[in-house]
């Protein structure tokens, strides 16, 4: 008699495109996720998913520390992200799953690894939803002074909880237009910036050579700070492999997203940093006070630059809230379907895991309340705890790909529609890069507590997952 183990459940929880039903894919069978995301949704999610609020705001501190070498920092971290995405794309194209890296880790390393990476990611995303809601509310209360911040947070949380409780195509439509607005904004900025650097924009004097007189004004230490800042600006790019599992053609969607990752990262991140350091002196206080994009637009004499960028940042924050609520709920659903979470979260109605959506949103709103009630201890501890989770996820991706690639070559070579470059050498290079970043964070006083706190969370989850795995094995026996 056959039985479904956590490993095989990861493969079968979301059908691949080859097993898709002949009827309308957006009308799922009872108990299964829908397939309502179209290729245009996935393409725009992949395109706009790399453009987060961290790029628009957080990069200012990195430029202030690293100076013009921030371009080198973003290039190095961008190369690492490209390798991680390629590895993840290879596994997700072979076995599309709403659990993405968590399912792959469970299949490659063991159920405890899927449990650890999945729930750590869920905590990070659900917390991020609350943080993004707070950030969006601060922007709106700046426009409408006197209105309570909590009211806007509650409104945004309600809107995106409602969006994710509906059919998945509604999430896709929201993200399509959010991503389109972000892409238009960043492309317009780059176009204006290039014209200004070339001295072709009326009123511009071209690139500022004084700002480039010293490439590494902060020395190696400044470059390291810039590198650490840039790494976390890329967080969330892996969400497209989760969304692909609910698309009309998961394999094609993953392959397309991964293959275009290189030029998207190069254009949006590295291109933006190059334009900014060419226009604004790296030691300008405006880079941190106003944000790098506002500072650059002010240099160009663009009227209302601050408000323009506030709108763009608001869109980026709302987009992240929507996407993180979606991704958190699907990862939780996948974990439960593999027997690694409360069964109630695995209930699906109309192709949507609504209990998982509500749980993810509730956790996010709890984080918002903690930011008001206990900002100096509990909330600060929570932020530190999720500070390095993305690096833990990337490490699981690298180890999983090393194991699964050899298994696929031996057992199912036809599934290797996306292949990691120069395997296994570049996989080992990526692994070494991730471990190096961990070491750098431990050496930096400002980030050491994040590594230790994330390490504690990971250890607790790993022990819990391992104990659960052993109990499950004994029960099956």
Automatic annotation (TrEMBL):
Gene3D superfamilies: Amino acid/polyamine transporter I
Entry keywords, A to Z: Amino-acid transport, Membrane, Transmembrane, Transmembrane helix, Transport
Record membrane topology: Multi-pass membrane protein
Record localization: Membrane
Region ranges (Disordered): 1-35
InterPro entries per record: AA-permease/SLC12A_dom, Amino_acid_permease_CS
Biased composition (Low complexity): 1-28
Protein's name in the database: Amino acid permease
